[in-house]
Amino acid sequence: MAPPAEFSAHTVKSFDEDIAQLRAVITRMGGLCETQIGDAVDALVSRNVESARAVVEQDARLDALEAEAEALAVRIIALRAPLADDLREIVAALKIAGVLERIGDYAKNIAKRASAVAHAQPIGPAVIIPEMARVVIEIIHDTLDAYVDRDAARANAILSRDQQVDEFYNSLFRSLLTFMMENPHYITPSTHLLFVAKNLERIGDHATSVAEMVHYSVTGQRPAERPKNDFTSTLYSPE
Prior knowledge:
Elements: H1 5-46, H2 49-80, H3 84-117, H4 128-149, H5 152-158, H6 162-182, H7 187-219
């Protein structure tokens, strides 16, 4: 015998509420990632050790939100037995939560490097880092908007933007390498800045991976593989 209509309606409403709650947790994680990246780079630029330490301490909040997202997703799967599109979205949310937690780890690492270079002399090429951070924060923000709106086209459009982050990284890598060769006594702080730039480059990679997950969860199809423009392993760009 089919369940009463009011029971089915209640079940659908409860499922929608569960999904909305899961999306809200993921969105909070994304917003916290944006804040942590921005604060870590601000601490680097302002040479503020206390601000850098605060970013490191905030990482526990992301860990807690990831655990909350995981518990929600497992509960939804266990109680609602979702299929097709709904199941893809829940699995994608699980993966996205893990990626956002990893982005938070990179932001924490940037803050640690900010503390390490706070007492060193300013280094000219570092001016690229705030602009690089701005781009990765925008990518994260737009990706989470696409996730909430279930907008596959917007998620797909984000994928190519990671190339701009790679270009910043290539430029900063070369500039810092030249700077260290000309100023050997700046090798230690320059090396810290190289790690900061690499962390931002990896954040860009992870953010576009989230966009790929959003596209797949909505369409059931994986987007075309995105090109990479990080040529620092060869020290030159191909012709």
